[in-house]
Amino acid sequence: MLMPPFELHRPSTVEEACSLAAKLIESGQDFDWIAGGTDLIPNYKWHINTKPHVISLAGIDGVSTISMNEIGCMARLHDIAEGGDAHPLVAEAASKVASSLIRRNATLGGNLCLDTRCFWYNQAEEWRSSIDWCHKCDCGTGSDCRVIPNQNELCVATYQGDVAPTLMVLDATVHLIGPNGARSVLLHDFYQLDGMTRNILQPGEFMLKITLPEDVEDWTGSYRKLRVRESWDFPEAGAAAAWKKGDRSTLRVATTALESIPRRHDEEVANSNGDVKAICDAIYKSTKPVNNTALPPRYRRNMIKVLVKRACEE
Ligand SMILES: Cc1cc2nc3c(=O)[nH]c(=O)nc-3n(C[C@H](O)[C@H](O)[C@H](O)COP(=O)(O)OP(=O)(O)OC[C@H]3O[C@@H](n4cnc5c(N)ncnc54)[C@H](O)[C@@H]3O)c2cc1C
Ligand code: SF4
After folding, report:
1. Residues 191-213: pLDDT tens digits?
2. Of 7, 104, 94, residue with least CA distance to 50
3. Does residue 146 line the site of ligand 2, with CB under 6 A?
4. Which ligand is closest to the CA of 235, given by its number?
5. What is the extent of the structural domain holding 281?
6. Is the CB–ligand 1 distance for residue 42 below 6 Å?
7. Do residues 240 and 165 lie in contact, with contact meaning Cβ atoms separated by under 8 Å?
8. Beta strands in 147-276, from DSSP E residues, in sequence order
9. What separation in Å is there between the alpha carbon of 90 and the centre of ligand 1?
10. Is the pTM of this model over 0.90?
11. Is position 134 within any domain?
12. Which residue of 32, 94, 121, 311 could cross-link 80, Cys pair, CB 3.0 to 4.6 Å?
């Protein structure tokens, strides 16, 4: 559990962060961004894919904004949950992340860019060495994936962040910045179906903020989460639903913790003519959790029907 050595860089502006990233890339040196560190630091202590350099986003001015239409990457989940400025649906999901101690450090950027998790990966180095590693952290051995063997290409580790599905159903846009400039994409196009690649971030790019549409105040919704211990556990399944107040035909649904990415289910909702049971059945059919988190995949899959129903019917 000893922290491996790394050099910590602390830029104070976005420009400085981008130029630091560019310099490290140019000199062929690997690095990670760090925000609150509640996920990265435990992974480093377990010697999971550590890097020789870490760039902290914590000292950058102006990236902790919280309002109805904008949340900065360094906004703490505690402030999103308790501050009264964020959309109530986003605040609800933030309040269900981990424990109150963790939420005081944890940030929105870190939550949305959270590494995917797997029973075979989120373990101490000795444990992983005793099973001869796995594809996502193979320590140069070329080890296979333990969940879906004999393929050595895809990692099916699970994305277990709580906030993403609520932002997806509110049509959030993520704003990214890096040495090659800025760009924006819808949050539901940000994730990539591979537990190692995770998202579309290019080398040196980081998430600056998210924005929500102007009429977001007119939208309401609910987030439901399945976890082992209410006090602090990651979601084993999660469902968010949102609709424009007074207009159920605008219903949107998204899920999390069922595969490598959180997913918005537009097709399933559109094909169900607003019938909640049909939506639940369609989402049940289209999601196939694998055996790499605390609860069995069949149970998580069955529970998603319950969570979607409760989120839609609230
Ligand atoms: C005991 C425990 C329980 C937890 N339970 C939950 C839970 O219930 N729900 C949940 O969602 N999470 C949970 N977490 C995970 C984590 O605490 C949260 O997801 C948190 O929001 C991560 O934010 P952070 O700022 O600490 O991220 P960090 O640890 O700093 O970073 C996480 C990842 O995101 C990257 N990153 C951070 N910021 C940016 C950025 N702006 N742009 C690009 N990349 C970035 C980092 O490089 C790293 O890969 C738990 C963690 C622990 C230790
Ligand atoms: S899904 Fe496979 S490759 Fe990915 S972390 Fe788990 S065992 Fe490793």
Report:
1. 999 999 999 999 999 999 999 99
2. 7
3. yes
4. 1
5. 67-314
6. yes
7. yes
8. 173-178, 181-186, 206-211, 219-226, 237-244, 247-256, 263-264
9. 16
10. yes
11. yes
12. 94
Say if 26 falls within a structural domain. Answer: no
Residue 261 domain flag: yes
**Domain-located, residue 240:** yes
Local confidence band at 114 (pLDDT 50, 70, 90 cut-offs): very high
Instruction: Please give the span between the terminal C-alpha atoms of the chain, in angstroms, as a whole number.
Output: 44
Using most ligand atoms within 8 A of CB, pick from 38, 43, 44 the residue to mutate for ligand 1: 38
Retrieve residue 218's tokens.
């007119």
Q: Which ligand 2 atom is the nearest neighbour of the CA of 156?
A: 1
Regarding the beta carbon of 64 and ligand 2, being less than 6 Å apart is answered: no
Q: Model confidence over 18-34: pLDDT tens digits?
A: 999 999 999 999 999 99
CATH number for the domain spanning 283: value is 3.30.390.50
Q: What is the tally of structural domains in the chain?
A: 1
Q: Percentage of the chain surpassing pLDDT 70?
A: 100
